[in-house]
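Lab notebook: predicted structure, single chain.

Context: the supervisor wants predicted structures on file for every construct in the current expression panel, including those that have not yet been purified. This is the next one on the list. No modifications to the sequence; it matches the entry in the shared construct table.
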Amino acid sequence: RTSSSLRYWPTWRHTASMAPHKKRTKVVRKGHKVTELPRKPRPARRRGYLSKRVKFVRDLVREVCGLAPYEKRMIELLKVQREKRALKFAKKRLGTHRRGKKKREEMQKVLQAQRKAQAAS
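Prediction complete. Output recorded below exactly as produced.
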């Protein structure tokens, strides 16, 4: 075909005014009409989900081993209201801002639990 004949290529075939199909293509106006099958979620979607067993094991290890030295230092910083310094310290030890924030929250919960246990006794 010449370039002049391509200019008038019939584009009306794929317009919305046509009768709707029961099947549809995956990409708009491309390829063979197919029915889309429901997909099972990929295993990677479970990533980060905390199971009961993992939680139990981690709690047991924390109870037996106690806190790491850097975690003890973070708690000391949190005791004297140095939350920003504790975050910077955690970031340096753990590598990322998000991990640092998560560890700071965890240490704040540990500190609250310690205070609660101390108040109860």
